[in-house]
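Final report, closing paragraph on structural work. Over the funding period we assembled a curated collection of sequence-structure pairs, and we close with a single example.
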Amino acid sequence: MAQYEVVIGLEVHAQLKTKSKLFCACSTEFGNEPNENVCPVCSGMPGVLPVMNEKVLEYAVKLGQAVHCEINRKSVFARKNYFYPDLPKGYQTSQFDLPICEHGRIEIDTPKGRKTIGVTRIHMEEDAGKSIHSASENVSFVDLNRACVPLLEIVSEPDMRSAEEAVAYLKSLHSILRYLDICDGNMEQGSFRCDANVSIRPKGQETLGTRAELKNMNSFRHVQKAIEYEVQRQIDLVEDGEAVVQETRLYNADKGTTHSMRGKEEAHDYRYFPCPDLVPMVLEEAWIEKWASELPELPEARRARFVGQYDLPEEAADQLTAERETADFFEAAANAFDGEAKKIANWLMVDVARLLNDTGLTLAACKGAPEDLAALVALVEGSTVSARSAKDILADVLRDGADPKALVKEKGLAQESDSGALEAVVDEVIAENPAEAERVRGGDKKVVGFLMGQIMKKTQGKANPGVVGKMLAQKLS
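Its predicted structure, as stored:
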């Protein structure tokens, strides 16, 4: 593989979080009964006319501004003509030669440092319906709930040179969309889906190789695995003296392979022409300025601020700012905590992350507030409760919104820091373990852990480790 260069470009479809569809008032709610969210417009009935959803235009411009695109003051909808049972009009209303946004960029991190990936274009289009195939009944059904749901298609330049770079680009774009709150980013439900154009060429060659388009990848992991498989497949073909065929291929997640679906279409195959039912959109400068002023602080800027303001390592800032809800939660908790923000960051990245992963919850679904986490960490830092006990009640605090102070009192988890009471226990453990005590006096510090364990056992884990450690050091010095 060393003599080949991988060339990857991505086409991402992001479903927008609008309440109604692109050209009609039908609901975009996911999971409704088949064909419940349908009207004459989105079902393609003759004689009906589309009406543009202004929110879609706003979202498209905001994404363009977030990724440094040129915003075209005039853009045009076009008809993309092809036949498929779930496309009731026989064409898809999209954009072609006059899209809403062009010539942007997204920054990603690579092992060699920061890299800029070009964004060729962002355009608005309607989604198609969904075909449902029943092998047992030997019939197919069509659900048009998704027909006319608004999408943004984000087309990258072929600037990525590995599957890892492609995933990094996708994660960066996914994060930006979530920060803007214009797409929920759910890959399993198809709200954020990706097609990858993959080719190889000998290193040093400028001409692009023949590309294959990969579809049916509904997770970041699947994107990486599909690209890696496809790259090796193309290398094997070339080294066997065979030609790579330009085609569309589907990824089989169960087998980890790609297989041919159809020949790859070119733009002329779709016979694009301006949609006669929709006038060109001409943007006013006041709209563009207003939407720009409403942009939130985006992941890249927030990451830099977290490093400077909270003195976080870059890796921690990356992890905390990847999702807006995590960044918001951290910042609120850090501001409520009278101590180093790193303490909050560590709890969020390790213990809270583990809890969410084990329970399948999200921070948004938790009843606990950021201030509750700050209060729990403060109890640990103030030696009121041990870190182990705090981790035991973390689920109650976050999931159920329980008051950490009341919970510590109710469960009797407060640490014992009274030197008089602890001294008696320490003396007792030393008396019961004379051999181990002598080893510590002789310089074997490893045995201190054993003695600490015995003390914790006698106090049911309530002894303050700091106080106990000092006592042992004094008595066995």
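The CA atoms of residues 234 and 240 lie 10 Å apart. The chain has a mean pLDDT of 90. We thank the funder for supporting this effort.
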